[in-house]
Amino acid sequence: MKRNVEIVVISDVHLGSYGCQANFLLDYLKGIKPEVLILNGDFFDIWQFKKSYFPIEHAQIIQKLIKFAAHGCKIYYLTGNHDDALRRYADFNTGMFHLRNQLELQLDGKRYWFFHGDVFDSSIHFSPSIAKLGAASYDWLIWLNRSINLVREKMGLKPSSFSKKIKSNIKNAVKFVNDFEQKAINLAAQKGFDYVVCGHIHDPKIQEFETPHGRITYLNSGDWVESLTALEYNNGKWRLHKHEDFDYNIVSPRLKVSDSSVMNILELSSTLKNKNMTDPSFNKNGV
Question: 123-137, pLDDT tens digit by residue?
Answer without folding.
Answer: 544 455 555 555 555
